[in-house]
Amino acid sequence: MTVHEPSLPHAHLLYRSMMQWVGGAGVIVLALAILRTPGAAGGYSLYRAEGREKRLRPSVLDDSIASYGSVGMELLHVPPMISGAIALPVLYVAFSRRNPLELLRGTTAVPDPIREGSFQFMSALTTTGWQTSTMGNWGTPEVLFIVLAAMLIGGSAGATAGGIKIQRAVILARGAVWQATRAFLPKSAVKVSRVGEERYRRSEMEELLGQVGIFVLMYLSLLCLSMLLLSSTLGPEFTLTDIVLESASVQGTVGLSSGITTPDMPIAAEIMFIVQMWAGRLEIIPLLVAARAVLRGFAP
Predict the structure, then answer these.
(1) Hey, where are the domains in the chain?
(2) DSSP run (H or E) holding 111
(3) How far apart are the C-alpha atoms of 74 and 69, rounded to whole Å?
(4) Based on the number of CB atoms within 10 Å of its own CB, is 7 exposed (0-12), middle (13-18) or buried (19 or more)?
(5) Is 260 a residue whose pLDDT tops 80?
(6) What tens digit of pLDDT does each residue of 123-168 get?
(7) Which helix (H) or strand (E) holds 229?
(8) Residue 257 to residue 20: CA distance in whole angstroms
(9) Which site among 128, 156, 179, 217 is 20 to 30 Å from 25 CA-CA?
(10) Across all residues in the chain, what is the average pLDDT?
(11) CA distances (Å), 118 to each of 100, 132, 176, 200, 249, in order?
């Protein structure tokens, strides 16, 4: 929210960069790597529960990549954005086996306009945060498309990307198909569902869908709460489309903005954004576990 970032002291810029680097690497993952206890069973659960990594977004330029005004610079930043949304185990396999095909994960871009739409879509999907277009001037259909198809989904689980994650979106889609087809099967039928390389029986699939469904419900509930708060605190210069874009971007730790996030924003909206970024970075379930532990510590 700094008006002129290059004017900040170098110590502040260094501190901000270090915090972004630690956040992007994963606080829980770093803690497990340094403080790992042999034979501990909770480490893997924490790693899976985090599932979200804040994007690494150096902020040297005031207008981000748009300051260059160069198509070449935009194309140069697309590969790192894609790599940031690919799961770290996939990157390891690709480089260790020297098989680039492991990195292929297709995605679609906004068709109009091709240059701005494709770059903003990729930046939103990978939650990188590079912005080359004034998204506050975009039409409602374009904004809703980039929010629903990119910001809310985000990158792969285990990658340095935010959002609900592609894995959860795939599980929900497969679960909807599974529920629909199961209604036409006899009760004695044994249907095994497949998600990726994993196979799940009925009870296992129901448990998996329950876990994912609860997370998505909490994620969307926090998002709706933010939009209601913004609607009541912001002035008439911001539309509902601007609010949807900003809330989804903040909670997904994306970094794209419609112009709401400024030093002059209402304090209530600023506090809400802090909570959203915190929950979006660490994910909601680990925060609920931490809150429960704190409350139990104060209980008589």
Answers:
(1) 5-298
(2) none
(3) 9
(4) exposed
(5) yes
(6) 888 888 888 887 877 778 888 888 988 888 887 777 767 888 888 8
(7) helix 202-233
(8) 18
(9) 217
(10) 77
(11) 23, 11, 29, 36, 17
